Amino acid sequence: MNDTTRATRTMFRSMLSQLVVLLGVLLVLAVGVGYAVAGTPGLWGALMAVGIAAFFMLTTVVLMLLTAAQPLPIASAAFVGGWLVKVIVLFGVVLAVRGSDFYHRGVFFVVLTVAIIASTAIEMKVAATARIPNVEPRASDDTAGA
Fold it and tell me: Could you give the C-alpha distances from 86 to 25, 42, 51, 146, in angstroms and in order?
């Protein structure tokens, strides 16, 4: 495994652990606030939003972690394929709950928005501070200048 792959996997592992912590904190806070604001429908709105957020966040990071050592076209195909599956699942969930009154739409929207903003901030911070080499010299390049 080369230095770039190792550093990339380290970055995605860090991202994964921080997102899991975010989801745990979000779950506790969102369920409590959702229930306090709207009762049982608020609870269900919060649970659905955290579930969808978890599905989106974790599948992306796990796919990138699994394909970190693969060539760019394979990693890109996994990313796009994963995105397509997630959109189909989200569309199915939205269609399934359309018109339902068992969940509070406002709580759902707020929790999902907070999850998106917080996860984006985590991903940007981890990616910006990752020490991933841009160039990996080959052994033959070391003697080329001599």
Answer: 23, 24, 12, 53
Closest CA to 23 of 125, 111, 85: 111
Hey, what amino acid is at 113? T
> For residues 12 and 64, is the Cβ–Cβ distance under 8 A?
yes
Is pLDDT at 138 greater than 90 in this prediction?
A: no
Tens digits of residue pLDDT in 60-88: 999 999 998 898 899 999 999 999 999 99
Distance CA 103, CA 120 (A): 25
Alpha-carbon span 8 to 35, nearest angstrom? 39
- Shortest CA distance to 84 belongs to which of 106, 121, 59? 59
Q: For residue 68, what are the CA distances in angstroms to 5, 71, 108, 128, 129?
A: 6, 8, 33, 17, 18
What's the N-to-C CA distance of the chain in angstroms? Answer: 28
Greater confidence (135 vs 80) lies with 80
